[in-house]
Amino acid sequence: MTVNSYDEWSPLREVIVGSPIGYDSHELDLSFRLFFKVFDEFTGMSRKLIKKQYVEELHEDVEGLVTALEGLSVTVHRPLTLPKRADFRTLHWQSTSTPALNVRDQAIILGNEIIETPPQVRARYFENDLLKPLFAQYFAHGANWSVMPRPVMTDHSFDLSHARAHDPEHVPGFDELALPASGMGFEMLFDAAQCLRFGRDILVNIATDHHALGAEWLVRHFGERFRFHLMRRLDNNHIDTQVLPLRPGTLFLRHPGVVDWLPEPLRRWDKIYAPEPNPADFPDYGPDDLTLTSLYIDMNVLSIDENTVIANSQAPQLIKTLETHGFTVVPVRHRRLFGGGFHCFTLDAVRADSGPEDYFS
Ligand SMILES: NC(=[NH2+])NCCC[C@H](N)C(=O)O
Asked: How far is the CA of 142 from the centre of ligand 1 (A)?
């Protein structure tokens, strides 16, 4: 049981699958509103309850993902379940922890090393504690394990310039920030899901100065072992509904415009474009619900190997697109949008025969 994962497509042997159990509310603080671009909704509210039905349905669907993976002879590991009392406080603020559902977001496996990334959303500050027993087991079996600097995460830690440029009316200015300065400037706030792995080459999206600090840490930490290719503002943060490599030489892209952000070698790869999402394929959410993802979330597929992907059974056009391009699609139901899809819910710890290949030459 040691980690070995250098890309997004080699044969999947071991995976961690998250869990939504205990996900009963969203904490609507500055960090949440900034990350999910929710500044002009539920204003004046500090917490938004999530309907129990939605959590139960998502739990059913994630368990369906586990069943499908085990049916494909993939070893599945699960995080600890969120304790009943998930409130916590730091020296500067308090929050309520999220469960480890989107386990792709705050840890990345590069080769035989687990890297925990610094949270961008305060409610996620201790989320990785639910993964620690698994990381400790991998460490005991020889994996390297690094944790990027834990941020203080006061209001002043965040670079709000990108958000303010898009929504000056609702995004607070520096003088309006509530929490005291942490005695430093912007902090390293960066998600693993801003990265995609291509053997020796890692694609990284940064949209703010607090992201750039995270990318700089990766570059310094890994030196010559990996080559990091920075893209600026392909998205606000995560890019696994903008671009996903399905096998060497083939990219799954949200639309042709994404190519303009890609490093030169990837522009020569074959491209499969996601179909325009059909709103009728999605659940009916009312004005009182908080939807946290775009309608492109079903692009967020999980590769089992170079020919097989797990995709949402509720996205028939997307399945047809992938099948038309020769992929075998394993359909799994995903009904509720909690900020993630099958790539988000999973952390691929072992991909057989994956290595630091040079796919960029
Ligand atoms: N690893 C993740 N959680 N990725 C999810 C990205 C979702 C993306 N922001 C969208 O709305 O389409």
From this structure: 31
Distance from C-alpha of 76 to C-alpha of 349, rounded to nearest angstrom: 10
269, 289 contact by CB (below 8 A): no
Does residue 206 sit in helix, strand or coil? strand
Compute the Cα dihedral for 262, 306, 100, 294 and give only its sign.
Answer: positive
Q: Model's pTM, two decimal places?
A: 0.97
Q: How far is it, in rounded angstroms, from Cα 138 to Cα 135?
A: 5
Rg of the Cα atoms in the chain: 19
Pairing state between β 87-89 and 94-96: antiparallel
Q: Is the CB of 193 under 6 A from ligand 1?
A: yes
Distance CA 302, CA 114 (A): 19
Average pLDDT over residues 261-266: 98
293 lines ligand 1 (CB under 6 A): yes
Q: Encoding tokens for residue 237?
A: 């943060």
Q: Whose CA is nearest to atom 7 of ligand 1?
A: 293
CA 64 → CA 67, 99, 312, 330, distances in Å? Answer: 5, 18, 11, 11
Query: Quick check: CB of 22 below 6 Å from ligand 1?
Result: no
> With the CA atoms of 64, 68, 73 and 77 taken in that order, what torsion angle do they form, in degrees rounded to the nearest 10?
-30
Does the C-beta of 104 come closer than 6 Å to ligand 1? yes
Per cent of the chain over pLDDT 70 is: 100
ipTM above 0.85, yes or no: yes
Q: Residue 32: which H helix or E strand, with range? A: helix 30-36
**Using a 6 Å cutoff on CB, does residue 240 contact ligand 1?**
yes
Q: Residue 239 CA: which ligand 1 atom is closest?
A: 6
